[in-house]
Amino acid sequence: MNSVTVTTPSKKYYVHTGAELLTVAGELTAPLRGAGKAMIVSDTNVAPVYAARVQKSLEHAGFTHRLHVIPAGEGSKNIHSLFPILNEMASFGMTRGDTVFALGGGVIGDMGGLAASLYMRGIGLVQLPTSLLAAVDSSVGGKTAIDLDAGKNLVGTFYQPDLVLYDTDTLATLPKEQLANGFGEIVKTGMIRDEKLFRASARENVSAADIAGIVHRCVEIKRDVVRSDEKETGLRMILNFGHTFGHAVEKCSHFSIPHGFCVAIGMALITAACVKRRICEADVYSRLVAALKARGLPFSTQYGVDELFSSMMADKKRASNTVTLVLPTGIGTVERRKVMLDEAREFLEEGLELTKNAQEAIA
Predict the structure, then answer these.
(1) Domains detected in the chain
(2) Is 236 a catalytic residue?
(3) Contact yes or no for 102/111 (Cβ under 8 A)
(4) Which residues touch 362 (CB under 8 Å, ≥6 apart)?
(5) Catalytic: 230?
(6) Are the C-beta atoms of residues 125 and 100 closer than 8 Å to each other?
C-alpha cells in the first residue's frame, strides 16, 4: 500500500493506494471517526459490484450502515439527486460524529462529498474512488459540487475528506473508455508539473502496476498544490489546465462526452493557441497530441467558436469580464494569465483552427 499525507489549513488526511482496500474500509476508518453510523453513497453501476465489500467491512468494524444508490452518470449530479441523500441521512438519524462513504467515480465523489459538507454543516467523509479519473483527481483536494442547467459544478463547497482509499483492484472492472477518461487528467497533471509523469502516461503499453505508481505520483502533485492553495485563489488554478475550453465542450455535448475526453480536447486547443502565440514550442503540441492518441483520447472538436464561447460564459472560473487561462510553456511547466473575455475568445479561435488543420492532416 502506498500512502500520501495531505495537509491543508482545514484538515490533515491520508490517501492510501493499494489492493483490497475496500475490504478494510471500515477498519481503516473506525480509528479516525469512531464506529458510528455510515451512509454509503453509490450508483447503479458500482453498487452491485463493490457495495457488499464495503458493507461487510463496516459491519466488521462495528458501524451500522445504509446504502443510497443513484442512477449512474453526470445526469444525476443535480439537486434532485442531492436532496434524497440528505433526507435519508436525516431519517437514519445521523449526527456530526457519523460518516458518509462515497463509493464510485467522480459524480459520486462530488455528490457524497457535498452531502457530507452540508448535513449538519459538516460530518465525516471517506472517499472510495472506483474510477481512475476519481482516483487521480476528484477524490483528493476537497472540491464537491453539483451541476445547474446553466453549467457544470456551479453549486458546491471546498470540503476535505477524512480519508481516501483507492482500491487498485477496481481497475479490473473499468471499461477501456473509463481508463482513457482517467488518463485525460493524468496527462494534464504531467503537462502542468512533471515531464517524467507525462512520459509515463504517453507510453504505448501501461500495466496495472504502472498505473498504481502513476496514481500515487498524481496524488503527490495534487497534495503539493492543494497544500499551498486550498481554496483555488492562486496556484491551484494550474489544475484547471484544459478545463476552461474542456468544460465548454462538455456542456455543448450535454455531458455525453466524458470529462477526461473533454479535458484532452481543452488541453489541445489551448496548447495549439500557445504555439501560434509563441508561448510554447511546436513540439509541446505535437508531444501532447501523441500522448492523447496513445491513450485513445481526442484532440479536436466538432463544435464551433460561437457555441463553445457561449458555454464558457457559464464557467465558474470566469470573473465578470475576465478569465484566468492556464498556458503551457513547456512539458511540465505552465503559467497563469488573466485575460479579457475577447482575448479568451481569440485563444479559442486560434486553437480550433490549428487542431482542425491537424485533424484534417491525419485524416
Answers:
(1) 2-173 (3.40.50.1970), 231-362 (1.20.1090.10)
(2) yes
(3) yes
(4) none
(5) no
(6) yes
Residue 317 reports pLDDT greater than 80: no
Is there a catalytic annotation at residue 232?
A: yes
How far, in Å, CA of 265 to CA of 251, rounded? 13
Dihedral angle at the C-alpha atoms of 200, 253, 109, 138, nearest 10 degrees? 30
Q: Give the residue among 291, 290, 274 at the shortest CA–CA distance from 282.
A: 274
pLDDT digits (tens, 9 = 90+) for 139-156: 999 999 999 988 888 999
240 given a catalytic annotation: yes
What is the distance between the alpha carbons of residues 136 and 246, in angstroms, rounded to a whole number? 18
CB contact at 8 A, 83 and 90 = no
Residue entry with cell 446553466: 150
d(CA 109, CA 114): 8
What is the DSSP pairing of strand 333-340 with strand 322-330?
A: antiparallel
The active-site residue, picked from 236, 251, 287, 295, is 236
Which is catalytic among the residues 16, 68, 220, 232?
Answer: 232
| Annotated catalytic residue, options 77, 240, 251, 295 | 240
Is 11 an active-site residue? Answer: no
pLDDT higher than threshold 70 for residue 34: yes
Cα 162 from chain centroid? Answer: 18
Contact (Cβ atoms closer than 8 angstroms) between residue 159 and residue 210? no
pLDDT reported for residue 303:
96
- Return the closest-CA partner of residue 113 out of 41, 220, 38, 16: 41
Regarding pTM above 0.85, the answer is yes
Residue 131: C-alpha distances to residues 53, 162, 168, 181, 204 (Å): 16, 19, 9, 9, 21
pLDDT tens-digit map of 182-228: 999 999 999 999 999 999 999 888 888 899 999 999 999 999 999 88
Active-site annotation holds for 243: yes
Reported as a pLDDT band with limits 50, 70 and 90, residue 319 is: low
Question: For this structure, is 205 an active site residue?
Answer: no
Mean pLDDT across 71-85: 96
